[in-house]
Amino acid sequence: MPYTLRDGPGFYLLRAAAQFKHAFAKELKPYEITPVQFAVLGLLWESNGLTQHEIAARLGKDRPNVTRILEKIEAKSLITRQQATNDRRATHVFLSKRGQAMKPELENTAMTFRDRAYEGLTDSERTQLNRLLTRLMENLQ
Asked: What CATH number does the domain containing 71 carry?
């Protein structure tokens, strides 16, 4: 059987990820943040004070890319960065008051968007989708 693009998950994952990112970007536009900037804020809402290295690892991005993302978020006064006292190479990232204050509204936007993306799926299908995507990622580590 010859290979066809649509035989594997890559085609659908790329298309779904691109559509998801584009649609979420439209939802975030009024807040003047991007989906990846939202992801950084989300990490900090869960664990304020992460290092840039930890943020890069959790997002699966390289450190120079994360540095550029953080510069843009910092320019919007949503975060502050502080050099670690015990390791001059490490920089901790903290939410500003403004970044913390945006949490309820941005979380609501994200949850509404997630519900829209999951529309028509049962709770079981949602769980299964997440489990299958996790397994795919684990297989490729």
From this structure: 1.10.10.10
